[in-house]
Amino acid sequence: MLSADEVAKLVSEVSERVITRVGSRSLAETLDETLWWEQERLRGQDPTDEETLADKQFYADVHRQMQHATPLEQRRLLVQIVDRYTHEIAGNFSPTVYKFAAKVAPPMLSALLTGLSPRRLFGREAIPRLDQHVIIEGETANLETLRERGTLIVTPTHSSNLDSLLIGFAVHELGLPPLTYGAGLSLFRNPIVGKFMHNLGAYTVDRRKRDPLYKRTLKAFTAVSLEFGQDNLFFPGGSRSRSGAIERGLKKGLLGCSVSAYRNNLMRGKPNPDIYVVPCTISYPLVLEASTLIEDWLAEVGKSRYIIVDDEFSRWERWLDFLRGIFALDLKIHIRFGQALDPFGNPVDAQGNSLDPKGRQISARGYLQVNGEVVEDPARDAEYTRELEQRILTEFSRQNVIHPTHVLAFACFELLRRAQPGVDLYRLLSSIGSGRSEQSLALPEVEEEIEALLEQLEQRSAAGQIRLSSVITEAITNDDVAVLLRAALRSFGTYHPKPVVERRGVRLHVCDAKLLFYYRNRLDGYGLRDAPALASFASPGGARHV
Amino acid sequence: MADREAPEYELIRAPFPMVRKLQRTLPSDYDGPAFIWDIDKTWLDTRISQVKGMLKIPFEFAVDKRALPGTTALLHALRGGPSDRAHRPLFFITASPPFIRKAIERKMLIDGVEFDGITYKDQLEVFRRREFGSLREHTAFKLGALLLLAQAFPERTKIYMFGDDAERDALIYCMFADICAGRLRGDKLVATQVKLGVLQHYARDVAALAEQLPVHERVLGIHINLVREPDGRRVLGYDDRVLGYPSAGAAARVLYERGLISARGRDRVEQVEGAGEVVFGQAARDPKGWWTPPDQLA
To answer: What does the pLDDT read at residue B141?
Structure first.
């Protein structure tokens, strides 16, 4: 992680880079644009909020000074704005807070969660540890070597605001230094973790700011931090998957920083210029914010909220319920690292050499050279970023770890969908409904469907197209659907306020159709059981991030 | 009458105050097995029947409740039947009060114990009626709950019962078997209950309910977990249809031989706990009073 001096240098470099790029446009035009977007944003903010008041004052001053400003003064105003943006974005990493959090948080969390039972709190029973519930797996062996040879960008799937905390835990467990990452404003305002976010390496991403200058500053910040050798964490899907599906499309703006940082490193003759992109999946049997996310996905386009600040993540009691469920039910969250890639989407070997599809070493530098010189070419780089996107998506699909909740939800949803052919998704979900219109399925019918699904999953898993959790593997190996059903039903019956699916006698009742759909979507887009892709949109975020 | 707070539960006041949830209706031509289990000391290692155990209740969460070794696997095996997929009927009757139903049913969910019905003794109602002697005396409650279940079952259902020797489970189950078969009814049933400490009015209500049940041999097996006397001393006074088991594995071996569970189900139970051998009752079968030992009858 960068020192305070390095952060100051980084901030100054970002400002300089952004201002230089603005140079080609009219300064007045850029200032006007910023003022318009910012005033537009501030109009919708709480007028009593201190931050809003300060912003209003600042832009009122800029507006006043702009009236008769010379080009030199206009430039000074622009520098002021960019500096303000950069300082707001920049984190304030504290090694002390990080070390303290890494050491104390996991055991404290474990003790707190298991200690919620007085008997356990005062008894002599062993308290389960966090590392027993977070499985870190996949291609982790070479990460340390790659880090020494270049800079890492870890690019995980994104389902929950817990993701960045879990990746932080995984990175610490793997003995790697902390990553810096862009965290949404909602995380900083979160009453539970907000206070520590900056100190743990996060920088702020305020998605309410639509000003192109802010976006350029943000992108420059990421690129420069990479050029400074700071390992980064990007959520390439942009925001949390609203539908529960894994991403089928990525935001290429931020991803493109990998090519630009590599190019700049080469052009400046940096000693370790390589950039390695490490795709990674985070698979939860239960998702903390599932209810809010799926509600949002189902809301009509245009009405859904891109920024959610009032979801389960901001409520203590939901955290406790969720984490207690994870501990009490012995659930596992899988963090699975995929094949590391160069900025052009080529896989790299243990030493960080780029490989072609036949496994032969190739020169990554060659991708950026024209007549032996590294040159800047935005159109070419955008094409490379598209290649990288495709490779990351392939890895997401391959490293997606399936849990019993996903299998049961998929099986139930398929049976209900097939029973009403031709009905669109929204009508189908409302027909499954809840309360009086709650639908039920005969257990043997569900078991048969799960068996057929497991057969296909086994084939996909053998072909390396998907990953299966240990419970599913056990169910397949022992030809025992019951073990999977039990695991799924206990997960569904414990965390969410209403069970997603509940067994009553020999029937399974769907008590929450939306959540059934949400968990089903983790298997969406694989063509299993001839099911249509209902949630895997090939748009940024892969899961309809409106 | 449904519980207003939780409509899936029925509040039953006669023949004894109890709260019941039934989630499955067996088809009228069903002639397969149905299993009826006690909870305290038969499935869970709890002592709800004792004052100390009752006092612990508010401090125990579902995750704290421990199943007796191998019993959860035995319940899975019975539910699965010889094919592992039979979903055979499984019901619980417990003297635990209904206010801990959440913890018990959550424990069932955590352990994957599928049940079709559960009956709790309404201890609060008994307390409210100031019938303090009936708080720890379970005969009328258990007989009443069993008779109500038998009424709900198709006539040809084969009932297999599971209890423990910490209380009078063997005796109560034998009485129930005799009631079903028509050998223990009317005044004799009332007097026997009273002898065991049941209040007159409960004894009469149980006997009245028994009269409504068509006479039919329904009970095929009684299985007693030997938690108090591992040598099975308490079982010897019954006939050989009463079986005492020192471990879930020992019971599983017999249940497999009788075609009630699969080999895989048996093996899974034995993996956890398989020590010891079962003990069969040694009293002679007497058509006029077998199962219920004569010295227990009034």
So the answer is: 97
